Description:
Blueprint: H1 12-16, H2 21-24, E1 31-35, E2 38-43, E3 50-53, E4 56-57, E5 61-64, E6 67-69, E7 77-78, H3 81-92, E8 122-124, H4 132-148, H5 150-167, H6 182-200, H7 290-297, H8 320-325, H9 340-347, H10 361-379, H11 410-413, E9 420-422
Parallel strand pairs: 8-9
Antiparallel strand pairs: 1-2, 2-3, 3-4, 5-6, 6-7
Amino acid sequence: xxxxxxxxxxxxxxxxxxxxxxxxxxxxxxxxxxxxxxxxxxxxxxxxxxxxxxxxxxxxxxxxxxxxxxxxxxxxxxxxxxxxxxxxxxxxxxxxxxxxxxxxxxxxxxxxxxxxxxxxxxxxxxxxxxxxxxxxxxxxxxxxxxxxxxxxxxxxxxxxxxxxxxxxxxxxxxxxxxxxxxxxxxxxxxxxxxxxxxxxxxxxxxxxxxxxxxxxxxxxxxxxxxxxxxxxxxxxxxxxxxxxxxxxxxxxxxxxxxxxxxxxxxxxxxxxxxxxxxxxxxxxxxxxxxxxxxxxxxxxxxxxxxxxxxxxxxxxxxxxxxxxxxxxxxxxxxxxxxxxxxxxxxxxxxxxxxxxxxxxxxxxxxxxxxxxxxxxxxxxxxxxxxxxxxxxxxxxxxxxxxxxxxxxxxxxxxxxxxxxxxxx
Length: 424
């Protein structure tokens, strides 16, 4: 049975099985519980399962049997609607639920000209191969990009694109997520960020994080002189390393002086008062494996209709893009949210939500995702490296300029070698 992106539905009898044991004694009628100060209600009495938090309906994406996704947690899949509602409540962290999204006042998007082709392509390395000096120079360049405002402007671009794409996951133009242009859009996004870093220090290039082999919480990635460590218990604030608030790294794009941490529960993302970076590192088992990556790389078709989170879900699984993004899986894979999605979940905190670039590890993660696309292109020289060739409903074609920049098309971004190469 194909999964559907709808408000969670189920028969009244089947819905009873999705509720905790305490609900069983009451049959398939409404189940209510207080959880972290909020009221969760699950009502399966009208032939479908309706989930509310404090009276506001929580629209869940049902990705398959035993796989539910809250709009508040893009890559965290849960086995029941109740578990998804609890995850959403944890993500809200005391927010008000508003009847409508309040106005937004983020920085204007960065709209530079297309990336300038360097005289000689630079090399992007695994972060484990960086020298101590290269690590220091990379961190200094990131801090300077933050000080200048370029970093926050790029975060704002991602927030706007991410919010729009998830709100319009059923109908409406999607450019950066849940769409074939996920990979070229982020390739352009990384090019702009890398260009900003190299304007500060021409010796700097983007490193990547290969989470199929570098999986430990004790990895040099989380060292105090590089990305810093996990968030502390409670508010999950990062307190060590150059990107800790106490060391000067303050979030501006999602910080709003309202006194409330506000997230619109159905996808109308608004604001977040916290001006500090958060992380909640999971056990290494949350990360996808080399076997899962190899299985995705073996898929010979870039993407297929309906060009969204449903693409390539059935044999012969003709969507390398959707398997890499994490919304499709093979029968032998246990969980949804693999590969690209699994790294967001592993890091947690801001990385699990639309403002994920506030965490600099986002760029190392997406640099690896870009490398995976490059590896797939090299392995499949005789097939289209982007589909659809012509614009399809709600998604860019090969020659469609990508918003918000409108300076490059997927066709312009297929060949990365004039700009950079990877070390392996």
